[in-house]
Amino acid sequence: MAADTEIAVRCQGLQKSYGDVVAVDGLDLDVHVGECFGLLGPNGAGKTTTVEILEGLLEPDAGDVEILGMRWGKDDRALRQRLGVQLQETQLAEKLTVEETLRLFGSFFDGGRTVDEVLELVQLQEKRKAWVSRLSGGQQQRLAVACALVSHPDLLFLDEPTTGLDPQSRRQLWELVLDFKASGRTVLLTTHYMEEAHRLCDRVAIVDHGKIIAQGTPAQLIASLGAEHVVEIALEDGDPAAGEWLRQVPGVRDVRRERGGIFLTVGEVHRSVPALLATLKDRGLALSRLTTHHATLEDVFVSLTGRHLRDG
Amino acid sequence: MVRASHPLVELTRARMMESIREPEAIFWVFVFPVLLALGLGIAFRSRPAQPLRIAVQQGPGAANLAEALDRSPELRATLLPPEAAHNDLRTGKLALVVVPGDSVTYVYDPTRNDSRLARQLVDDAVQRDAGRADPLIVGEDHLTEPGSRYIDFLIPGLLGLNLMGSGMWGIGFNIVQARRKRLLKRLLATPMRRSHYLLSFMLSRFVFMILEVAALVGFGWLVFDVRVYGSISDLLIVAVVGALAFAGLGLLAASRARTIEGVSGIMNLVMLPMWIFSGVFFSYANFPDALQPFIQALPLTPLNDSLRAVMIDGAPLTANLTRLAVIGAWGLVSFVTALRIFRWH
Question: Is B18 in Cβ contact with A95 (below 8 Å)?
Fold first, then answer.
């Protein structure tokens, strides 16, 4: 991204505590107009608190927030006209129909889309007359996004939009987000699915304990590992000292021991694996498991924090 | 049907749609008060005056005496052995037992109203039978006051009770539910005006209030011939003030609560004293004088008094201004307080 790109969201030194618990701890963020920006982190990392501050729903204890060149507390109504918001775990009124729900949300905005346009966008035309309580989880989530799209927003906030959804519903929602982005508008989403961040986001910030610990395009972040592949092995007898001599295997950049295995980050699988097997043979050790995969954002998170995204 | 209209219209419409799709709410708001009126109206219906049951204890001359007493239309006299007579008197089946003899004795409990009345009637009959002549001829003119039956008293009371209950439950329950489901927060993330949201509850209450009043007053009129002696518009004005006051109280009860259990507890605590003290089922004059200032300060008391004044006495609104002011003050203070302390998240 060029340095003079237009900024959709900017926050600096954001802080928020609940009693003794620090949820957001000095967070800086720049989201450019037209990009899809992802906050990736485990549950409890402070993603939702951050997003709700940006949405003007929470007051930060400290820090500066600027959204679409405007500020909360001054331009609230003008700002809300231009935002689309989907909150985590919002349950819409159960006994209203899909159409009634969209009409209600649409009535709050000047202009915006018609109910028909939004229904087509989220492919819920057939459910127009159905009560919200009769929708599947995926349909309810699409309706929640539809409520955010009804205003035809310039900036869309999605907080864990696909948590708890089946793979098909998840892909449908991804299509929605990609279409929205294709229209030149901005998305800020949070997720703890690295695949989602990888598929949707132009840039990703990895959040842990209320701070951003790494930021960049998914490709940049993975490249920061210095290697593109991960070899995962387990030894039949285990070996507490395995770390040291494994580092000497040609092509191995990093070694991580975890319950249930040893993870080697390598540049080239076809060179490192034969070398690894030869070393093991010399030492008289037998493998009980060997798998390899392309390095992912998950591996980036693990190498930065020593924990997995799903562990929280 | 495609482009949405004014947010206040949409919010109110959504509120009403949700309400009518909730069968339980319909039952408690419309059916329950009618069933209550029906049950109590039947149990406490006015009956023609029943003759008082008395007994003459067996003995010399008892049969003649019993026959003489039984001729009186207001007495039903039987002849009983002493033991049975005393037993029935003690258990309340008889109002009085006459022991015949040279000097007739009346056995009765002077703290029982029916016994005291029986004593008067029996004594008159006994004295006349013994030859007393009444020196003066008197005439009688029987009067029936309109609106003096129990059901006439009950229907306005149930109306007040219903305005209180549906106002508080209808608003409190729904707001806490929306807060718990984070729907309130979601709405705040739109340009919706907060005042529109709260006002939509008031407006939908207003529409339902008219239906509630129509259902209960219509039922009382059709089934029990309960009339509205004042004007219908005065009745509606009193009901509007009452409905809005309790909507304000409902809002206040729900302004902080995060759970349905929490708000239910608060509302029961607020409403229970009014169920008992505010003269819904019986006159609050039955309570000691020391309690009266407290009773008068409860919002349901002046509401019930005003409803009765309009329905039974046919009083004009001007006679109810003080009461309406008290009710209105409750509504205003709770609404303003609720707005200040309301928890949107």
Answer: yes
